[in-house]
Amino acid sequence: MARKEAQTLPTGGRAWQRQQRIGHILAAAERVFAEAGFEGASMSGLAAAADLPKANLHYYFGTKEALYTALLDSILTLWLSATDSIRPENDPAEALTAYIRAKMHWSRTRPHASKVFANEVLHGAPYLGSYLAGELRALVQEKSRVLEGWIAEGRMEPVDPPHLFFAIWAMTQTYADFEAQIRAVLDRPELTAQDHAQGTDLVLRLVLKGCGLRFSEGKRLGE
Amino acid sequence: MARKEAQTLPTGGRAWQRQQRIGHILAAAERVFAEAGFEGASMSGLAAAADLPKANLHYYFGTKEALYTALLDSILTLWLSATDSIRPENDPAEALTAYIRAKMHWSRTRPHASKVFANEVLHGAPYLGSYLAGELRALVQEKSRVLEGWIAEGRMEPVDPPHLFFAIWAMTQTYADFEAQIRAVLDRPELTAQDHAQGTDLVLRLVLKGCGLRFSEGKRLGE
DNA sequence: GAGCAACTTGACCGAACGGTCAATCTTGTT
DNA sequence: AACAAGATTGACCGTTCGGTCAAGTTGCTC
């Protein structure tokens, strides 16, 4: 799956307007696909969410499947960028803290994107299978080697790196994907910034202490 | 949502055969709804999976929605039973270990049930909303008081109990719900018993050490 | 074994689905 | 101002959807 980024286009031009429309449609589609899933979303529903005629969506994307994969594609760009802090020369506690905070922040600010991804994987990743087995797997292997290096140097306790990633993904994304459950249990009309802060604290606590690293409650980077 | 259990029926009787059929249809529906979601599953697909004519499913359940909610209902019975070990008089480490092992075992043996539940919550829990806000919320409040008791007695470190439950649910259920992702990253045709054992070890490590409790790798109850 | 309720099922229905298309309007270029 | 390429859209199409129904079969009761 190729991922190309829009280079800076002269504002107001024909191609620029095209990018605007496509971005507008994808933003609406993210909401609809997140709430209804691929099968549950209808082209007329997607069109209504974008406030455009259905035929217009077909003009830009051809098929529902193409619109969906274009959306997945745009989401993956975000997905891969959060592991930057995990590098051999960094401090393990600071690197993991930064990674977890980034994932939690992403769950808070882009819950729909997380849900679209979750729905795709939940149903067997029919469109994302090759990405998972390719780019994601390679990324996990690379970052796992970094963790193994830290373990070998005695800078953290021996934990299985891939499974640690699974645990971190699960705990952080649950605040987006299973938000309905968390809201119900906490009896909130919607999750507050404080709920997310408490969740972040707990995830940091479990991961850092689980890896034998120091953890101090409520700590922010730089304190 | 009422939950009634089949009392022992005389084998081979009229009512007994009816229960058999219903159980057979629900078992097939669990697979189909897990793989396709509510909207993605079709009545003809459900009928094919159960190897019965479509009209026969309508005879027993009336509508697709009724079949789906009957399935959810049967799943919830399992869901609520795993927290039994969390009682004030038990040892915190042993209670949490038993709970996590139960949840992990359930992810391994009933992955489809987990996926159906996950799909429902992911899309806003339209049918499960009242259960989440009712029975589940009450259960979490009750068990949270147990944890708070342990914390007050100094038997574990202060962690936010509801968020701890969210974390445990997320980490354990991820081995069922996001199995496609884990399989891809680990490069497996399917998850092995050892993969689950390593996952269990990691979840136990994070939770026990995160709560300031002792953790020894590979430990089983009674060792 | 007659009668009846429970069950089974192929054929069918209106609605909604994803997708197509030709007619029309807009816009950058010359 | 003229023109071509791009963009817009209402109307339409074949398929599949969830659901219904009537005709037929089965099995329990008396």
Explain what you see.
- Two copies of one chain form a homodimer.
- The first copy, chain A, is an all-alpha fold and 223 residues long.
- The first copy, chain A, contains ten helices and no strands.
- In chain A, helix 1 packs across helix 4 (64-80) and helix 6 crosses helix 8 (161-177).
- The longest helix of chain A is centred in the first third of the chain and has 27 residues, at 14-40.
- The first copy, chain A, is globular.
- The interface between A and B is large, with 54 and 54 residues.
Distinctive features:
homodimer; 223 residues; mainly alpha; globular; DNA-binding
Brief account:
2 copies of one chain form a homodimer. Helix content of chain A is 70%, strand content 0%.
**SS-derived structural category of chain A:** mainly alpha
In oligomeric terms, what are we looking at? homodimer
Mean pLDDT of chain A: 92
Biggest interface: A-B, 54 and 54 residues
- Overall 3D geometry of chain A? globular
Number of helices of chain A: 10
Q: How would the blueprint of this fold be written?
A:
The structure is a homodimer of 223-residue chains.
Chain A: H1 14-40, H2 43-50, H3 54-61, H4 64-80, H5 92-109, H6 111-122, H7 129-152, H8 161-177, H9 179-186, H10 193-210
Helix pairs in contact in A: 1-2, 1-4, 1-6, 2-3, 5-8, 5-10, 6-8, 8-10
The first copy, chain A, binds a DNA duplex (30 and 30 nucleotides) through residues 13-14, 17-18, 21, 42-44, 52-56, 58-60, 62-64.
